[in-house]
Every structure is written in C-alpha cells, then in structure tokens.
Write a structure and sequence with these properties.
The protein is mostly helical. A two-stranded antiparallel ribbon has the order 1-2. A hairpin with a 6-residue loop joins strand 1 and strand 2. It is 71% helix and 3% strand.
C-alpha cells in the first residue's frame, strides 16, 4: 500500500502519483516493477485487492469531503484538545496529556498547510510529554 503523504489516500502499490491530489508517491521504475508484481498475482486475488483499494479510496474520499464541510469544527476541536493537553501537562499529568496531545496533533496535521504552525507546536509539546514520561518510567 502507498499512503499519500499529502492527503492520506491509500493508493494502489503501482501508482506513481496519488489518485486524489496527484502528489508524487514513487519513482516510475519502482512503480513499473510493482505493476509487474501486481499483474503476476492470481486473477482472483488481484480482483479482491482491487475491490479493497476501491473501498479504501471511497472511505478516504468520504472522510475528505466531511473534513471540507466541517473544517472549522475540526480546527476548533484540534485547538481545544491542544489546550486540554497543555493544562494536563502543566498539572504534571503527563500520562493523561499524551493521548490528548497526540489526537490534537493528528487533527491539526490533517487540516493542511494553514494549520502547520499549530501542528508543529503540538508536536513539540507531545515530544516534551513523551520525554517526561520516559524519564519517569521505572527501570
């Protein structure tokens, strides 16, 4: 499977560019090699895999449509989780803050370039939280 680094779509292993956003996925030579491997699969297995990719693509497309429609609410949720994670971190509740900050980062990163600074700030907080958890872990 090839997951697009830009939009997250799961692409077929032989695609050169993302079917959703056209971001480059791999070099042409690598794609051609994977296409030969794909074509060598038994027909039944290949058809089954094609259906699975189609289902994943449809699910990703529905999710991207939802994100476009609910972008503002998603941004507010990411910011709210970030603030909650910060409060937990400030209170020394590192184990509780880690999953909250991780989810905030996931949401902020999914919102694209205009939220990159917020995602980076959350990434730094999450790293601090994980470092404190590692330091506090019993040997």
């Amino acid at each position: 499977m090839l997951n697009c680094p830009k939009c997250g779509l799961t692409n077929r292993p032989y695609e050169v560019a993302c079917a959703e956003c056209a971001a480059p996925l791999q070099e042409l030579a690598a794609a051609e090699g994977r296409r030969r491997e794909w074509d060598a699969l038994p027909a039944r297995l290949r058809e089954e895999q094609e259906r699975a990719y189609d289902q994943m693509r449809e699910g990703t497309e529905r999710h991207l449509q939802w994100l476009r429609r609910n972008r503002a609410a998603h941004a507010v949720l990411g910011s709210t989780l970030n603030l909650h994670g910060r409060a937990l971190l400030a209170a020394g509740r590192h184990a509780e803050s880690e999953p909250v900050l991780a989810r905030a980062l996931e949401i902020q990163a999914s919102l694209g370039a205009e939220h990159r600074a917020a995602a980076e700030a959350t990434r730094v907080l999450l790293a601090q939280c994980q470092a404190k958890l590692a330091a506090a872990a019993p040997l």
